[in-house]
Amino acid sequence: MQEFAVPEARRWVRPLCWSAVLLDGFDLVVLGTITPVLLSGKVFGYTPETAAAVATVGLVGMMLGALLIGTVTDLIGRRRALLVVVASFSMFTLLCAFAPSAGALGLLRFLAGLGLGGCLPTAITLVTEYSTRGRNGAPTTLIMTGYHVGAVLTALLGILVIPTLGWRAMFVIGAAPALVLLPLMFRYLPESPVFKADRPGLEPVKSLLRSGYRRPTIAFWITSFMGLLLVYGLNTWLPQIMREAGYPLGAALSLLLVLNAGAIVGLLVAGRIADKLPMRPVTRAWFAGATITLALLSVRLPGPLLYVVVLLAGCFVFAAQVLVYAYVGRIYAAENRATGLGWTAGVGRLGAIAGPAVGGALLSAGLAFPWGFYVFALVGLFGAIAVSLVEGTSVRLPGDRRTADRLGETGSARRAERA
Fold it and tell me: Where is the Major facilitator superfamily (MFS) profile domain positioned along the sequence (predicted)?
């Protein structure tokens, strides 16, 4: 990774990528805001099973989109790919407002998910390649705050919009920002200088499992699976698990807000630390922090201490996953960086699907408290172990003119990484 003296271009990269990721955050919450309305009104004959199916096919679309578009980004360029995915998911999000049936809504959510899945790895790749070498931690985590800001804004919009304009208006509002964002991106979003400078024409997916990359690739996939299992499992079931523990409904819901507030704080702090210390021990420490705080939640804590622990859990759980993305951006070269991010995010989406299922199974079995937190803590421990297996190894792909320094192979970097 290199530092490029292009201040005019760099000035636009972060805000435009942040805005694109904010729309991704809208998608995280919008279905949750409209589902109670669809269920209570028996819209489309909606049942809990229907709601679960629609949510799942959307996640499957995001998984496939991350795998496909992450790979395509290394072939057609970051700028073009990001323009395509923002246009795509915005169009299908708008069409959701006119869905005539639950089946049509599910199909449109799947198609929107394809674009949404490709948005995150493409945006992070572009931001990484406009960052100073070895200093992409803070930019990556800053971009991901857009995800959580989008989620919070969508929840607030749901409170204001749905009672007056109905659930369909949420999808119109979610698609509308593209009318402003796409022209700005077309006019000001630059292509990555790394992509323009070095295009050797290799097959990027195969390169992920070449000698030297194989071990980091598999370790990243496992870590991302564990990280997204925690993110989606806790966001889905934390209020209900706390209800099972005997906390009142108001407290259980407020804890979910505290969890996501902790996420924003954790992202800002983790990125800065990761830019000053070796990435592997920082990421491992964040997963370890998630393990400890989740284990603490298995004990009934007094009010103020409970909120502090949940805030810390949010700091560690959400930022740990984003540090994985930042770490991926440092390990892979320009030729396969977006592919590496896409496949890491795509495989991680399996964890996003598994997280709600694991929590639901524990609730159905009457084991949500305290065993739910034991299980989630164990997942965090597995994430810490998996990321410990990542090593920067000396790999030179065909046409790669840069040194192995990007993998931490030069003296001081290598010693620091193993310290």
Answer: 13-395
